[in-house]
Backbone:
């Protein structure tokens, strides 16, 4: 009979994994409308100034600030209106001493003017504009290059493209951008009794749940799930599936990771590569195995749907994000009070799913084979290894699934 | 000269908008691999029990619990091994008094047995298995229907499909599922000087930023952006763009929402429909207009890229999510100390973008025309209407963009 030799702590497992994950290196070109959430694989250098010349930031009059330096309500200054600047066109009008020109928001400043006064603070009579207070040189002017300077690097390799960063690319006229490829994550469901959704099944067979939940977690975290057919628990078939997915950045195998008769992962992986750990001090999810084959990492997940999915949150999510070069994901947390006493397992970190009702965290875990242990939950609490019991009313931090 | 009549508070604006948003009603059928993040448009009723019959939750021996009720280390119980159950098959073996059968995790329980004892707690000699402690009836058995009961409703109309809920659909063999359509959000960039990214521009023209940033916010929040060509500031063209997008669930127009000469939105909207508000007590983003036309809401955003995008976070994000029937999005927050004094604007809520450096929140706002005011930021802080100045070192809550 096989057994787990010694269990590794969750933190140690995460550290071990982290040492063996190499972020994707390949890049691809995508259109700007596909760029959101992707990671830049190049520095973006501005080919021109934004704005290209000084622009008015207001609707008003472009003036020489010096001309109205002593303007006040009791002694207003008066300037002659000599023309206006059309939006989208290089100004032909020029402002000399004693003159002003009409400008609108975003238009280039006419030569000679260095400030803009809002319409609201002026009066116009025939061709004379009256000003009641001074402006400083540069007031209400967006200076050439003040948003992005020509030759500067407003975006850097490794930046995640948020809406605002997509906006910077647009301001520079970039219709396409080079980004890192999304990591390809192979997902291999295993088990003689498991059948693909959509096929017809016998009474004692069950539908494949794990490849769908794992694919969803991969997708949510910037990876591309590459889901294979269901593989029976046979050494050759498992090895075949591993080899077939060697081009992927990570392979995740669901099922067969424990120590029973049908659990072949340890044998297969220890022969083909190096097992980094087998058995983690976590509940559910203890029978988790991690190996390196030809320099690439492979994760063997327990087949029980809730063990598999809770481990996906604990291990697969950070792995996928690191491969994808995305920052750590912080699940949203809320504080709540436990609705009832829970008894934990000393020496195991417990991932306990809860539903939030009226500010109370209500445990909904049934058993690790039940997917509703996860699906009925709003999130989970983590009970540390050294905690045995938590009492009704204890404050807990719930990590939300959405 | 036009002016804002009276400004509305942000909270009032949000309430007003909320009253006029009707979540999408149309539904569509998607494959399970496209279901993540979508919203169920139907209750899911289980067509069969999961599991279909009692199953073993362990590798071990199926027994009648009564047979080993008095087993102990000093007085172990011995049962005759009468066979084993193959995974994925309906058991042919039957357990009678004094007998046990070998089972593996997930296989159906043989008739007659009501509990499973883990291998680890037994010894096998020839065809006799020795048991050292009792089990209760039902121990290590996943009861028929304990995950999902036939005829029950494990998922409900309106549920957002998380990875775990996708797993429930899989457990029921659903290859397809009915979900609400994503709302279509028309985005209309306006301005004579604005040109599409990818086209060639004259020196005094600028690239369209807003339709890209707005589309990104719509996409991040479950909507489908329907981006139109850039429309010049002309009444007929604006009206034409509004009519052309009447089939969309929401129309957002970027630019022309203020009170200058080129700001035609108020005129166009007040003639065609009912203006709900014009001018919001927020900075940047004051010149925002909201109207109802034929019962559908329309949002006019300021053209300055940072005003437009910050308002997208404040207004367009909750609007899109409500249309899409998604729950409110809580941006992740972190606490930080202000790196320097900031002077706010009394009577306006200020959306101040900040970068986080060494635990300090460093304001990065330049001006509302500069997209880098947003792109250089990690997030933003909200300074309430009644706060004039915040001091260096004051603790602030930063809402993160990622």
Residues:
């Amino acid at each position: 009979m096989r057994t787990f030799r010694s269990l590794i702590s969750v933190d140690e497992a995460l550290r071990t994994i982290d040492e063996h994950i190499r972020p994707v290196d390949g890049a691809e070109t995508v259109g700007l409308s596909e760029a959101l959430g992707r990671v830049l694989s190049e520095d973006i250098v501005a080919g021109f100034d934004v704005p290209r010349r000084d622009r008015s930031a207001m609707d008003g009059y472009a003036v020489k600030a010096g001309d109205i330096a002593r303007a006040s309500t009791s002694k207003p200054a008066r300037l002659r209106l000599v023309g206006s600047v059309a939006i989208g066109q290089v100004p032909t009008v020029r402002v000399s001493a004693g003159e002003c020109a009409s400008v609108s928001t975003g238009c280039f400043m006419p030569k000679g003017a260095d400030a803009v006064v809002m319409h609201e603070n002026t009066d116009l009579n025939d061709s004379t504009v009256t000003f009641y207070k001074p402006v400083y040189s540069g007031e209400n002017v967006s200076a050439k290059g003040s948003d992005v300077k020509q030759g500067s690097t407003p975006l850097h390799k490794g930046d995640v493209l948020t809406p605002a960063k997509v906006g910077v690319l647009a301001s520079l006229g970039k219709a396409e951008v080079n980004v890192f490829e999304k990591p390809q994550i192979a997902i291999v469901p295993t088990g003689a009794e498991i059948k693909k959704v959509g096929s017809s099944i016998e009474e004692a067979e069950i539908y494949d749940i794990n490849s769908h939940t794992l694919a969803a977690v991969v997708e949510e975290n910037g990876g591309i799930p590459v889901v294979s057919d269901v593989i029976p628990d046979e050494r050759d078939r498992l090895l075949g599936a591993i080899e077939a997915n060697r081009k992927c950045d990570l392979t995740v195998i669901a099922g067969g990771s424990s120590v029973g008769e049908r659990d072949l992962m340890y044998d297969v992986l220890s022969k083909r590569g190096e097992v980094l750990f087998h058995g983690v001090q976590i509940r559910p999810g203890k029978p988790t195995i991690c190996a390196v084959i030809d320099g690439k990492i492979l994760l063997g997940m327990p087949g029980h749907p809730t063990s598999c999915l809770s481990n996906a949150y604990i291990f697969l999510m950070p792995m996928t994000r690191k491969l994808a070069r995305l920052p750590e994901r912080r699940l949203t947390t809320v504080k709540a009070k436990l609705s009832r006493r829970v008894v934990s397992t000393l020496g195991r970190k417990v991932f306990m799913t809860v539903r939030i009702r009226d500010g109370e965290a209500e445990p909904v875990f049934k058993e690790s084979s039940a997917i509703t242990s996860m699906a009925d939950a709003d999130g989970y609490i983590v009970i540390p290894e050294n905690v045995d019991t938590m009492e009704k009313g204890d404050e807990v931090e719930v990590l939300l699934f959405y």
Observations:
- Helices of chain B lie at 10-20, 163-171, 210-220, 235-244, 265-272, 305-324, 372-375.
- The mean pLDDT of chain B is 96.
